[in-house]
Amino acid sequence: MKKSGASAPFVRHLGNAPQLVLLVLLVAQFGTFALLAPECSSGGHRTLWNPYRSVDFDSTEIQSTSIQDLVCDHSLAPAWYRFKINNKPAEMPTSCVEMNRCGTQAPVWLSVKDTPLPRPGEVRQVSACATWQFFHGSTKDCCLFRIPVMVHNCGDFMLYYLQPTQGCMGYCAKVAPTLAPRICPPGEVEANGRCKAALPSLLSRPVIAPELIGHSVHLRCSFIPPPWSHPLGFHVVWARHISHSMKVQIRQESTVKPFALVEMDGVHFRLGETFSCSVSTVQANVTGSRSSPRESEAFYAGLKFSVPSLHIAENGEEHEVSIISTVPLSCYDVNKCGVPVVLSVQEPDRLGDEVSNVALSACQVELRPTSPTCHKGICARVSFFVTAVTDFTRDGNRISMIGAAVAAGVPRLWRGYMATSLKVTVQDVPTSMCYSLTDPHVITLDGRRYDNHETGTFLLYRSLSRDFEVHSRQWDCGGRQYAVACACGVAAREGNDVAIFDMCNGRPQEPRPQITVKVLGEENGYSRQVRVLESHQGKKITMIFPSGAFVRADIGEWGMSLSIRAPSLDFGNTQGLCGTFDRNSNNDIHGSKVSHDDLHGFIENWRIAPGDSLFDKTPPGSRKDDKRSFCRCRKKSSSQEGLGLLSHSDCTAQDNVDYISVFPSVDTTLEYIKHPKREARTLNLSSGHSLDRFRPQFNDHNDNQEAFRDDLLILSERLRRQTMFDFQSVLDSQILTQSDLEHLAYFFPEDHLIKLRPEVRPHWPTPSGLTSGKALEVCHTALSNSTVGTVCRGLLGRRLDEVVDLCILDLQLKDDLSWDEALLSYLENECERRLLDNRAQKDMEPLGHRGLPGEVMAALRCPNLCNGNGECTEFGCRCHRSFSSYDCSVAVAQPLELSDLENGGLCDIRISDCRKIQVFGLGFMDSPNLSCQATRLKYVNGVWIPGEKHRTAAAFVSSKALDCSVPSLSSAAVNTEDFLMVDKAYARWEIKVTNDGSQYSQTKVLTIYDGTCQVCPASGSGLCKLKDRICNIDGMCFAEGDINPGSPCLLCDPDSSKFTWSLSQVNRPPKFHRPQSDLRTFSRENFVFQFAASDTEGSAVLFQLESGAKNATLSPAGLLIWEVPSAPEEEEHQSSFSLTLSDECDARSTFTVQIHVLPCECQNGGSCVTDVSFPAGSGKYLCVCPDGKHGHLCNDSVDPCFPAPCADRTCINTAGGFRCKCPAGLTGAVCQEDVDECERKPCFTGVQCLNNHGSYACGPCPEGMQGNGTVCTVDEDEEPATIAPTSGPRTPIDGIPGILLQNPTTLNPKIQSAKSMAGIPPDPVKAAKSMAGIPADPVKVSTLEKNIISVMHHKGKPVAATCASRPCFPGVQCINRRFPHIGYVCGRCPPGLHGNGRTCVKNAKAASNHLPPQQPAGQKSRSPHSSSKVSSLHLPALPSKRDATLHQNLASERGSGTGRREAVSGDLGRTTVSVLPVAATHRAHTRGPSEQDTPSKVTPPTPHLITQSRQTTHFLLNYVASSRTKHRTSVRPVRPLTAALRSLPYSLTESTNKNVSPIQVHVTNHVTCHDRPCFPGVQCNATSESGFRCGACPVGFTGDGQTCRAVCRHACGRNMECTAPNECRCKAGYAGPGCQTAICDPQCVNGGSCMAPGVCQCPRGFHGERCQDALCRAPCENGGTCVGPQMCSCPYGFVGPRCETMVCSHHCHNGGRCVSPDECRCRPGWSGPSCEAALCSPVCLNGGWCVRPDTCKCPRGFFGAQCQNAICTPPCKNGGLCTRNNVCTCLQGYSGRRCEQSVCEPTCMNGGRCVGPHICDCPSGWRGKTCEEPSCVHECLNGGQCVGPNTCHCAPGWYGLLCHIPHCQQKCLHGSRCVRPNVCACRSRVGAVSGSTLCSKRPST
After folding, report:
1. Strand pairing partners for 1624?
2. How far apart are CA 252 and CA 276, in angstroms?
3. Which candidate, 197, 208, 176, places its Cα nearest to that of 279?
4. pLDDT tens sequence across 563-611
5. Cis geometry, peptide bond prior to residue 1738 (ω within 30 degrees of 0)
6. Which residues lie closer than 8 Å to 406 by C-beta, 6 or more apart?
């Protein structure tokens, strides 16, 4: 039953009147029935569910993302409608709604101003209003459009009869107020007006968590079911949040599980969106009953940055930012479990190619999982660093957006996904420049200016936040009247980079610049990061550092001007002469000991002491700080491929600093790099280390003359500043010793001055007469009117006037007009700074590089615009062919002019490097032919005459200076004694220069002299004078005080003697350097310590031991060696040592040293030894412990059995250590050594003994015997057996290697031919050649050597023996045959004896009687049973080296068949045996390649040896068939030998008869063993029944001979088998240490485990041989593949659990239907690949776009159905038509933006104003259509014309304002007046003379 909304208040107020409740309820019920109109029923109206209609929804959110989702009711069908927002009743608002609300641009609301809303049950018509605003800033109209709406109050809700809107408008709604609760029985609640059973809600909120199922990402909504007595179900509603307060339902489902899963399919559930789930409980199997829902927290799925926004500053700080994924990542490839993310930087306010605001450490990162499962909402994370770009630009605080887009090649869910950008606010931090100009004028970082006229080395700039400082040196730069200082050098350090630019080692006007770049800590991997850039041909040097700071030096002849750029990271952190960089110039004069504005104290406070500056001292390297690289990562243009982003992942650039410079430059850093440790070897010759280099260094006194006679040009390094210092007599300096100067790079006298410089007090006019006016004119012309001053005037502003003032001050101080352009470089640098500083301003002219003005750029790149002699390019001036220099100011044809030489042409060899001289002049060009010519001048008969000429190299410095090399003079070229004793200079040269090699300049003379002994004036005579205070000793010149190079006790004292050395009167004793700590030793230590001492005069020091321990010695060098005795009391005590030190001059000093002796505290007999890890003299020791003890003091006992030295054997402690109890067969200290049981010969004689680890085994008994190998007995019933040949080692026969000794065989009595089986032709010679592998030829073999051996089986006796029984003749070598053969062989008989080695006699004939008989050639063989003798083979001497080579060849030939040895089991009957000579065998192994390559897998038949003749010698027994031999019988594949076969002993027979023809014996028998039925290595014996019998199995095998298996001593384990004797291996299909692991090949997949070989046990949900197939209950559709339990891998275009849902690659919008994976079928009115484009007919105009079918969205400034109407504010005037946004088309006669201006053609003149089309409003005095006619108020008279406002132009004879006054050229007389031109009106009494008009007659009286 429903209740009336109107009755609700009454119900609430009747709580105290129960008797009236029933009456009220009846009335309410009656009213409800009255309200039940047809439209109020559930089927009588429609419901608008769109949550966008809420008044709280901001439509601008979807206008920029999905404009197609805007609410547009122009196509709404007329009907009754009800509103619901998020399943809550809603009503139309009754107050004005702002634009861009309710999901539309023009929201529609109800106006109840005139008509109120109906009461329950009533229906009223109310006006609906649409809010609209035409343009931004205009007045909003809340009711611009009105729409009639019928409203029906159904009691519980409102119904509205809505009409389609006129345009794209939308009806608004807001949630209706909650009605009063209905009174329901206990246990029930109200639901939609009805009382239903109350269901419990969830006790806690559901939780959304992502999880990975297979390769798909799912969202799990988990919740805890509430306790209830009945079964519960759950209704889950998934919603997507579209704003902070709005969400839209996207899916709902019912479940009985405590969770719900949805897949993120990229369609309904996409990345980058926020989701929530709402859960209601329902009663199972009951419909319509539902509890109140509980909603989860919002869950954002996608990528987000670790910070919502970032605020950074341009201070160099690096900020770490992380990208976090809230959903898990799937491994879409074997090695790819991450998602590549491309980072980009977007800057909305960036202009053109402006520098970026931020830089990133990487432009592409790999997002990887942080753990197997998501933790605290983080499933994957990757970090990168962000820093602000130091851009040296005043651009204010700027905004940058960092975007993160997923790269290509990722799973479908991630494709095209871009995360919400990170907003980065970059705070602009100031940068500045500090200048030190000319003399110098210092301009601080905050703009304060002061003058520093002091000389020396100063700290110019130091950063307090990092390792950066700048030192400058100032010298006296030569003012004419005042002491003027200028900068001559600068040194800067940042981190481990030191750059020095120094010209202080030269002289003013003679600069010699030197650049040095040092890398501190280069051996630790530090790399250079500073760069040196040269501009304007070296006139401008810039040393730029990684932080962006640079030091720039502009070079002049007087020195240099310095510019230091301070980066933003030093803001507020500087000190030095450049002041405090804090934008407060008042505190720039600062210092801890300086009062405010105490300029002199401030300057002195930052003076650097001598030797402490970067010029002299190389600081230690700082800690390695790996500088991180940064990139700008800007987006590419839309025309580029991919996502339009940079794709590189690793940054190698330093884009966090903008290094741009306007000046074109060349990077010359590599030319100046110097490592500090190599500095001594790589110093430039223009600098010296100490004053030691001022004089020659001699080893001893005898070598003085010879050393000095060498080339004196190379005796010292240049130190020309010392020369200048000698002439500064007005100044005083400190007294410096040799040690004070040793650490100086060179002597800089300005660092050592102690007298203050005089105060500068300039005045006008100057001494030369220069006035201030003249100075102003000169400076204004040189600076203000220069190219830079003119072009940069707008940028420089007041700085230009300040520079002129500084120029005037320079001219006043120096009194020299040549300084007028010295400040031009400052104008250039300041102009560049301001240009870069202001480049972000929008009003900069976008003509040049990076939006900078092109004219200013040209003026800075090309000085003086190339003087009109070249073309200005991006890289500077490109001069015309006839001009040169960086500014094209030098003409190539200009003749060279030399002005002077360095130091006036004087060079002192004692202090300067006279191998090079600097030349000054004009017109020098850096050309390939630039060179110098030096002509030697000789003094002959009082005249200098030219001698030899030398062309030397010239080093270009500038167009006004270069360095010329001076030729060297050998010792024979000058007589040293002569020039030292007379007035001649050491050498004189004429120097001249050429640019092209042909045209030379005039000459200048260079005089080289010895300044120690001579004084040479700069005169043309070239003659010098000897000094007075010198010594001439042994022809050498020494100055007063010079020390004898051979003895420091002698020196030059002219007062004592000028020709001999004098004894030094001042000599101090040596100084002893005591040890830093007390010396300590211990008992019985061999104490060794080195004492140190030094002598003030540099003499050698001698040590002597005066007193001390008896067994102590002291070397003269101070090395004390003392064998410390053992202290009986073992207590600490001291020993004293007295030392005497003396120098070479016998000055002595005595010292006493105390050494503490410590007792040795080692226990248990341990001894103390010195601990070398501590310094000598520390007394530290270590204890060496005896056996059985250990520990620091040997106080712990040692357990020998720890830690288990015997492994798993028993360890027994013994008195001397331990002993391992070894099992049988093993021995050694730890049972690791095997006992060779075969050494005691446990086996039967002749039986092989096989030793193995821990045991042994005996082989089988010999043939014909039986037993276990240890004991063998003869088997009387055993028949003779034929022993098959083995594959054992081959033994040489008669010096020929490669022959395998065959076992003796027993011949079958039935002999038959074997031709058919062996394939041997009947001809014996052909047979021999065929078997040898050579072609048959008719050559006779008459002297073929042969030997046929017959071996008989000796029955009933042991058949094996060894050399142990000494069977050979005494003195004959006996050799045991190696396994698998048994027996022995005897060597040759001794010289002079004959025999077989076993028997040796003197007579050869008698020896033959002892040998077995042999058959003659051609005789048939007898039966072996007819003879009982056993023939043996004789073993010759061991093969030679040549034989070994032949053996290798033979072996290689045999290997050309199968490549391995094969078991032989062929014919055991009669066989053909061929005997070949040695030569034939050699040829057999020299076949061609075609024969060698022919493989043969034929098993040769077994040869049988039959004795034929005893006269055969040097034979080869060929038993291997030729590779060409073809067998008629098929051959089985050969199995390899598993064990060795047995053999019987035999020996070789030797004969001396060589004339035996070849014999071939044919033995025939029926073949029975040709198919090799026996086990490999087992011989096959033929039987008389044409059968066969196999012999015994090999050693270690058992079986019947046909089948043999290996025997292992111990049983093999599970899954193992015995594969070889005593060797167990895994069965096929098993592996692992215990053969417990089954092998499945191919391997099991999907978690399957290999249970047996080739058998996989699959987990649940998989099947197949490899578990490769997954199981799915329902089959996968549309070509899907089951890849996991109930999991389908869908093909492209399909989704769903069974791939049953087709989706398009682009989501089909606006009701479009997906008909194929790549095709959407759109509804009428829509088009495009994803139906996102609406169709409008006619088309939208004026840039409007179609947002709905036939609905245009107009751009700003237009409206109308097709945006055909424009909006102009204010409106167009004078009938103008608004045609575009704020663009008016005016009617003829009007103009202006709003047609407010009239047009007059022609224009109004003379100040007239156009007030209408062609209508002029003329000012007073003008008239006419265009005010072109003048107007006069009064008419001009007498023919005058009006020519201007009230201005008349009079005719001749008239004048006046109106031309009313006549003019008479002659004055009228006698009081008459002029009445007309030249007509006078006479007085009445005057008589006019006839014809006279002048009244010339006087009137009569």
Report:
1. 1618
2. 12
3. 208
4. 999 999 899 999 999 999 998 888 888 765 556 668 888 999 999 998 8
5. yes
6. 303, 339, 340, 341, 342, 414, 415, 416, 417, 418
Residue 780: DSSP 8-state: I
In order, the DSSP letters of 387-438 are EE-B------SEEEEEEEEE-SSS-GGGTT-BPPPEEEEEE----EEEEEET
Rounded Cα gap, residues 1341 and 1466, in angstroms:
30
Residues pairing with 292 in the sheet: none
Here the contacts of 1162-1165 (C-beta below 8 Å, separation 24 or greater) are 1162/1193, 1162/1194, 1163/1189, 1163/1193, 1163/1194, 1163/1195, 1164/1189, 1164/1194, 1164/1195, 1165/1189, 1165/1194
Please report which helix (H) or strand (E) contains residue 827, including its range: helix 824-837
Q: What is the pLDDT of residues 1325-1364, one digit of tens each?
A: 343 334 334 344 433 333 333 333 333 333 333 444 677 7
Tokens in use for 1249?
């003994």
Pick from 448, 509, 453, 444: which is nearest to 483 by CA?
A: 453
Q: Is the pLDDT of residue 351 over 70?
A: no
* Average pLDDT value for the chain: 75
SS3 1190: strand
Largest pairwise CA distance in the chain: 218
CB atoms near residue 92 (< 10 Å): 25
* Cα–Cα distance measured from residue 1091 to residue 1118, given in angstroms and rounded to the nearest whole number: 5
Residues 1158, 1164, 1166, 1171: what is their CA dihedral angle, to the nearest 10 degrees? Answer: -50
Q: Check residue 1433 and give its pLDDT.
A: 36
Crossing angle of helices 772-779 and 798-814, in 10° steps, is 130
Around 1629, how many Cα atoms within 13 Å sit in the side-chain half-sphere? 10
Decide which of 643 and 1636 is more confident. Answer: 1636
**Per-residue CA distances from 1642 to 38, 744, 967, 1229, 1649 (Å):** 74, 77, 84, 48, 12
Q: In the 3-class helix/strand/coil scheme, how is 481-518 assigned residue by residue?
A: CCCCEEEEEEEEEECCEEEEEECCCCECCECCCEEEEE
Coil/strand/helix, residue 1038: strand
- SS3 assignment, position 274: strand
User: Do the strands 456-463 and 574-575 form a parallel or antiparallel pair, or are they unpaired?
Assistant: antiparallel
Amino acid in the structure at residue 52:
Y
d(C-alpha 1474, C-alpha 1512), whole Å: 13
CA 1504, CA 1563: separation in Å to the nearest integer? Answer: 9
Task: Return the pLDDT at 419.
Answer: 93
Exposed/middle/buried for 1639, CB within 10 Å: 0-12, 13-18, 19+? Answer: middle
The residue length of the chain stands at 1901
pTM comes to 0.50
Query: Taking a C-beta distance cutoff of 8 angstroms, is the pair 1134, 1106 a contact?
Result: no
8 Å CB contact between 1758 and 1781: yes
Averaged over 552-566, what is the pLDDT? Answer: 92
Q: How far apart are CA 1652 and CA 1154, in angstroms?
A: 83
| Separation CA 147–CA 171 (nearest Å) | 11
Predicted local confidence at residue 1454, as pLDDT: 37
CB 1868 within 8 A of CB 1894: yes
Burial of 1342-1358, coded b for 16+ CB within 10 Å and e otherwise, reads eebbbbbbbbbbeeeeb
Closest CA to 461 of 565, 615, 367: 565
| CB 1896 within 8 Å of CB 1890 | no
Least confident of 51-55, 185-189, 622-626, 1233-1237: 185-189
Under DSSP, the state recorded for 327 is S
Burial classification of residue 220, based on how many CB atoms lie within 10 Å of its CB (0-12 exposed, 13-18 middle, 19 or more buried): middle
Quick: pLDDT tens for 421-431: 999 999 999 99
